[in-house]
Amino acid sequence: MATEESNSPQNIPTWVIAAVCFVIVLISLIAKRGLRRYGKRAGLCGEERKSRSLSSPRTMTNGGDLVDNNCTATGGFEDMYGEDSATLDQPVTPWTVSVACGYSLMRDPHHNKGLAFTEKERDAHYLRGLLPPVVLSQELQVKKLMHNLRQYKVPLQRYMAMMDLQERNERLFYKLLVDNVEELLPVVYTPTVGEACQKYGSIFRRPQGLYISLKEKGKILEVLKNWPERSVQVIVVTDGERILGLGDLGCQGMGIPVGKLSLYTALGGVRPSACLPITIDVGTNNEKLLNDEFYIGLRQRRATGQEYAELLHEFMSAVKQNYGEKVLIQFEDFANHNAFELLAKYSSTHLVFNDDIQGTASVVLAGLLAALRLLGGTLADHRFLFLGAGEAGTGIAELIALEISKQTGNSIEENRKKVWLVDSKGLIVDSRTESLQHFKKPWAHEHKPVKELVDAIKAIKPTVLIGTSGVGKQFTKEVVESMASLNEKPLIMALSNPTSQAECTAEEAYTWSKGRAIFASGSPFDPFEYDGKVFVPGQANNAYIFPGFGLGLIISGAIRLHDDMLLAASEELAAQVTEEHYEKGLIYPPFSDIRKISANIAAKVAVKAYELGLASHLPQPEDLVKYAESCMYSPVYRTYR
């Protein structure tokens, strides 16, 4: 029988006790030495070091190895992490120390202020000597950067300079973008982002979002947990199959989610830390990329069918599990067949939004509602002809029919008859129904077949011509002249992006219509003078809608999206167009007012969420416009204690 004495400490071998004590002392010495060395380097110690602890990036060599700030990667001093004493073939542990001060503070894009650190901040945060003596205001920094950006003649160089700025000084990036939105919007998004995606493998420097490939199947939840931010409110995700009008760019489509989310912050005021760009990499069918030695994605042809569906379903489930019911998932640049299927499949279980289908529809409808002041009549009085019957075309068409139903009380089926679509095979008519994709079938009206666009114009006699084909130069001189012969003020919207894929230019529309056309495009065009009058082309840019729309969903705590929210956003955007804008031929307000516009759109979307019982942030604020403005992220520098 065992006795109490047999379990006593005296019976534990002496060598075991000595070994344990030795390990404890060794760990203690190493820890103290490391903290002492780091504290000495950072200028912090004891409680002061604890009170100033913030997340900071590690100091890296060009090869990505962690090194001590007081030594080079090749040696000279022993570093606190042990890398310098290790040979190249020995593994090392990637230790990190989180103290936002000194050199680390300047390398943290979330907290870095560059030369704007005040004298007091430089002393308090151990920056003395690490910066030149001058102190520059944020406004002067913006002025200097704009001067530098304007020196670049190549748009892609400006894009790369902006991305570099975002990676080193987040607030300055957004301040620059907010203060110069009309000039810089084409740089950080369309059309320049298209070229950036095409060359993404060559210009890639550091990841700006999450890459989820087929290799991560079964582990997507773990991958999401690798993202450092926990309070994610908006996810923009693409699989890269249909990037703008450029086609399948595979993994290099990441430029789209990154660009969209920078606009969510700059234009809609959503916090940068609440935004997560994601690319789903299932391969690419782009042979040029598969043979490109710099391509950064999976080198295989696209997965389809069950394999694709299972990966996307795991992704959607993992997002909901990790971030909750209210995270907004925005699908971006998926191919038509997947875009419609994903939206239909998950709209009842997740808060999902497709900007190509719903965002484009909302911004175009806003332009149409605003243009009625110039065209006359109601929306129901007009006939609409689309070139392009994909995500954008059918999405816009459906929202037009919904708005007419709201105004007239007529059935949506009846209102669809006012909208006609032309695809690559000609006018969509009832005799083609059996061969049509499901999303085109509602638009197959009774009419004889018509092959050419100009013949469809002559047959349908539309008052509005909308291009969503993704193919440039389709609105020829004959097409525009036909529209002008039928209408005193033809409304022509060439919406395909980027600029090279626009159905026609502003100059062509105004010249061929003899200055009578009302013109809007997807990408920006410069003002054009015709017959002594200066015309300012409108831009039906989704950036008018999705940032404010997303903000409205966030501030209301919406758990699902409803079409009435899209209609509310369109109506509010149209209401922002003033007489002064109409005099210039504009059917959209200037982007210089976009933060105010976004706040008003957010308020209208939130109101609708509360009305529909889809809001979870209760009680409803009394003044939703002011509440939206108060929730918007400000890129102005903060003062550090």
From TrEMBL:
<dbReference type="GO" id="GO:0006108">
    <property type="term" value="P:malate metabolic process"/>
</dbReference>
<dbReference type="InterPro" id="IPR012302">
    <property type="entry name" value="Malic_NAD-bd"/>
</dbReference>
<dbReference type="InterPro" id="IPR037062">
    <property type="entry name" value="Malic_N_dom_sf"/>
</dbReference>
<dbReference type="InterPro" id="IPR012301">
    <property type="entry name" value="Malic_N_dom"/>
</dbReference>
<keyword id="KW-1133">Transmembrane helix</keyword>
<feature type="binding site">
    <location>
        <position position="332"/>
    </location>
    <ligand>
        <name>a divalent metal cation</name>
    </ligand>
</feature>
<feature type="domain" description="Malic enzyme N-terminal">
    <location>
        <begin position="166"/>
        <end position="347"/>
    </location>
</feature>
<dbReference type="GO" id="GO:0004473">
    <property type="term" value="F:malate dehydrogenase (decarboxylating) (NADP+) activity"/>
</dbReference>
<dbReference type="InterPro" id="IPR001891">
    <property type="entry name" value="Malic_OxRdtase"/>
</dbReference>
<keyword id="KW-0479">Metal-binding</keyword>
<dbReference type="InterPro" id="IPR036291">
    <property type="entry name" value="NAD(P)-bd_dom_sf"/>
</dbReference>
<comment type="similarity">
    <text>Belongs to the malic enzymes family.</text>
</comment>
<keyword id="KW-0521">NADP</keyword>
<dbReference type="GO" id="GO:0009507">
    <property type="term" value="C:chloroplast"/>
</dbReference>
<dbReference type="GO" id="GO:0051287">
    <property type="term" value="F:NAD binding"/>
</dbReference>
<keyword id="KW-0560">Oxidoreductase</keyword>
<dbReference type="InterPro" id="IPR046346">
    <property type="entry name" value="Aminoacid_DH-like_N_sf"/>
</dbReference>
<feature type="active site" description="Proton acceptor">
    <location>
        <position position="260"/>
    </location>
</feature>
<feature type="transmembrane region" description="Helical">
    <location>
        <begin position="12"/>
        <end position="31"/>
    </location>
</feature>
<keyword id="KW-0812">Transmembrane</keyword>
<feature type="binding site">
    <location>
        <position position="497"/>
    </location>
    <ligand>
        <name>(S)-malate</name>
    </ligand>
</feature>
<feature type="binding site">
    <location>
        <position position="356"/>
    </location>
    <ligand>
        <name>a divalent metal cation</name>
    </ligand>
</feature>
<feature type="domain" description="Malic enzyme NAD-binding">
    <location>
        <begin position="357"/>
        <end position="610"/>
    </location>
</feature>
<protein>
    <recommendedName>
        <fullName>Malic enzyme</fullName>
    </recommendedName>
</protein>
<dbReference type="Pfam" id="PF00390">
    <property type="entry name" value="malic"/>
</dbReference>
<keyword id="KW-0472">Membrane</keyword>
<dbReference type="InterPro" id="IPR015884">
    <property type="entry name" value="Malic_enzyme_CS"/>
</dbReference>
<feature type="binding site">
    <location>
        <position position="541"/>
    </location>
    <ligand>
        <name>(S)-malate</name>
    </ligand>
</feature>
<dbReference type="GO" id="GO:0046872">
    <property type="term" value="F:metal ion binding"/>
</dbReference>
<feature type="binding site">
    <location>
        <position position="242"/>
    </location>
    <ligand>
        <name>(S)-malate</name>
    </ligand>
</feature>
<feature type="active site" description="Proton donor">
    <location>
        <position position="189"/>
    </location>
</feature>
<feature type="binding site">
    <location>
        <position position="333"/>
    </location>
    <ligand>
        <name>a divalent metal cation</name>
    </ligand>
</feature>
<dbReference type="Pfam" id="PF03949">
    <property type="entry name" value="Malic_M"/>
</dbReference>
